Amino acid sequence: MSLPRTLTPDFFSKLTDSIHSGGESFFQELHECNGAVKVLCIQQSCIAESKYLVEVLDGSVPVKYKHTCLALIPATVDGDKQLVGKIISFNQYKVTPTKSRYLIILTKIAILPGDFRHLTTHLGPGLVYYPGLSVKQQEHAVPQAAPVQRTNQPLASGQTNDNLSGPIRNSDDHGPQRKPQSAPYTDAPKPVNTTGKPVVKTADGGTGGPINIADLTIYTPKWMIRARVVTKSQIRKFNNQWGEGQLFSIDLCDSSGDIRGTFFGEAVTKWYHFIEEGQVYSITGGQLKPANKKFNSLSHACEISLDENAQILLDRNDDSIPAIRCSFTPINQIENMAVGTIIDVVGVVARCNEVKSLQHKATGTNLEKRELLLCDTTGANIWITLWGKKVQQLQNNELEGHPVIAFKGVKVGEWQGKRLDTQASTKVTFNPVLPEAGAIKQWWATTGSQMKIDTGKQSAEPNIEDIMSIKQLTQAANQAFQFRTLGDNGIVLTTRAMVEVIKENTFSWPACMDCQRKMIKETGHWVCTRCRSTNKPRHTYILSLKIADDTGSLWATASGYVGEEIMHKVSAEDALALSDNNDVNAAGKNFVNIFEEARLSEYIFKVRVFSETYMDERRLKYRISKAIRMGRCVDAAVKCRLKEIGQLL
């Protein structure tokens, strides 16, 4: 696989030569490039406003090496700061030594057009850091912050700590050294906890003192934080190539921000029962690394990995450290979010379903679930499903009177529209004392409770500028399928098209009232294939339709409320009754009429593109997740343009 030809070859090697020949003065100067240098970003991590740590590769072949840079993104750069797969062009740079490598600070940069994410997927795992840009500690000493000590005894002369969480060692490793006689505390023993249990005492900060969570980066050398444990997950066991393992995580916050901490292996046994939600702890000795946003919804760019050697001390309570920090997403924006995104949400309980018990397919154990319909001041609503122990946290009497509930760390899902699901680490707060909760409570008391709630409503209008033709959509889908960038949940694309054909032979299926899965007949009775419910099914649409525009066509499926929208609000139960009885409805239309009416209607479609395997063959599939009639979209576009024109006048 070849690299883009615009990349600058041998940039790393030439920079290495300049560092060795420039001496100490090289690190004090801002260097101008003879011509624009172009590198490809393969990984990014935001550490502050307009500051990104990026891993890049130059144009050297064969492709073996990468390096870390600090990219200063100017405010004039368009887009959402998505740098992975982009070519970064810069004219100025500065080099500063860190603990292990020389950090290249890029200024006067530009993001060039083009998307090469398919290259990063294949190249990233096999690359190593360019060896010539590694810092040799004996040649260039990097000043480090003073470590946090648990005693008032000074360190012995000549000792240093080159590992953020490792033991103190001699800086000269060439052989044993004689201890200076003038150092009175050299032989003082290091405090050791021989019990093997966590130390329970009040921490007063040590010599270094705590720093704000918001100030932590992966390059912070030695640190100690004082933070409150907001949530603590259950212990999760797993198996990998190294055998069995276990982990649990905690969310920590102080007055400046929040961060995720994860414990592995023996640290789980040592710390799980010591750490309690709501308590304040002093923590040091963990490893800072870029946050994995697939599993971490917190705003911090880093997360902390902690082992049994970490120092965690129970601290005194501090009212300046908040009990919880949330970044709430308005409900009307959830429709446009990707499936699997972890968010915080707050809303008033407009409706509440009864507790239901399902059988876990893998373990055979019973699992409780409960669905709540949340509304907020945007007027939109969404169903959220509580699972397991989260169901027991909210009693029936607490859900009376439409309480306001805040959820921290829920997952966006999709089944007949967007939904939310609680996770093991989700924090549920009943009637929280927050400004957002107060505003929602006041809105519900004045106007919200009078609104007509449509649970099948699709609240968010599409962005007109994101609409593509059928030809462009299929090209984008085929490219993502070819380079295997669809992921587990696929991608969502938007198109404007007309319904050309709807298959009439199989347009619905019998769905379970409890879990919406297909029901089958066994010995004359309906049985759900998932939860084994024997209630009467409710037929729901599973349409197979062909949509087309002047550039092409494609076959897609549409189910549930989306299918009902395409069928002009005629329910699947009514359509099935017309088909079975050969009858007409109240409008005087028969089964054939309602399908004819649905054809040749124009919509804005949101199409989820994904792949599935059938008979050992991967196939590309299209599923319509949203359908909005063109009239509604034109009205929304006109209102938006009129508002923009009014702001210019």
Automatic annotation (TrEMBL):
<feature type="region of interest" description="Disordered">
    <location>
        <begin position="140"/>
        <end position="206"/>
    </location>
</feature>
<dbReference type="GO" id="GO:0006281">
    <property type="term" value="P:DNA repair"/>
</dbReference>
<dbReference type="Pfam" id="PF01336">
    <property type="entry name" value="tRNA_anti-codon"/>
</dbReference>
<dbReference type="InterPro" id="IPR012340">
    <property type="entry name" value="NA-bd_OB-fold"/>
</dbReference>
<keyword id="KW-0539">Nucleus</keyword>
<keyword id="KW-0235">DNA replication</keyword>
<feature type="compositionally biased region" description="Polar residues">
    <location>
        <begin position="149"/>
        <end position="164"/>
    </location>
</feature>
<comment type="similarity">
    <text>Belongs to the replication factor A protein 1 family.</text>
</comment>
<dbReference type="GO" id="GO:0006310">
    <property type="term" value="P:DNA recombination"/>
</dbReference>
<dbReference type="Pfam" id="PF16900">
    <property type="entry name" value="REPA_OB_2"/>
</dbReference>
<dbReference type="GO" id="GO:0005634">
    <property type="term" value="C:nucleus"/>
</dbReference>
<keyword id="KW-0238">DNA-binding</keyword>
<dbReference type="InterPro" id="IPR047192">
    <property type="entry name" value="Euk_RPA1_DBD_C"/>
</dbReference>
<feature type="domain" description="Replication protein A OB">
    <location>
        <begin position="331"/>
        <end position="431"/>
    </location>
</feature>
<feature type="domain" description="Replication factor A C-terminal">
    <location>
        <begin position="494"/>
        <end position="627"/>
    </location>
</feature>
<dbReference type="InterPro" id="IPR004365">
    <property type="entry name" value="NA-bd_OB_tRNA"/>
</dbReference>
<dbReference type="InterPro" id="IPR004591">
    <property type="entry name" value="Rfa1"/>
</dbReference>
<dbReference type="Pfam" id="PF08646">
    <property type="entry name" value="Rep_fac-A_C"/>
</dbReference>
<dbReference type="GO" id="GO:0006260">
    <property type="term" value="P:DNA replication"/>
</dbReference>
<dbReference type="GO" id="GO:0003677">
    <property type="term" value="F:DNA binding"/>
</dbReference>
<protein>
    <recommendedName>
        <fullName>Replication protein A subunit</fullName>
    </recommendedName>
</protein>
<feature type="domain" description="OB">
    <location>
        <begin position="229"/>
        <end position="294"/>
    </location>
</feature>
<dbReference type="InterPro" id="IPR031657">
    <property type="entry name" value="REPA_OB_2"/>
</dbReference>
<keyword id="KW-0479">Metal-binding</keyword>
<dbReference type="GO" id="GO:0008270">
    <property type="term" value="F:zinc ion binding"/>
</dbReference>
<keyword id="KW-0862">Zinc</keyword>
<keyword id="KW-0863">Zinc-finger</keyword>
<dbReference type="InterPro" id="IPR013955">
    <property type="entry name" value="Rep_factor-A_C"/>
</dbReference>
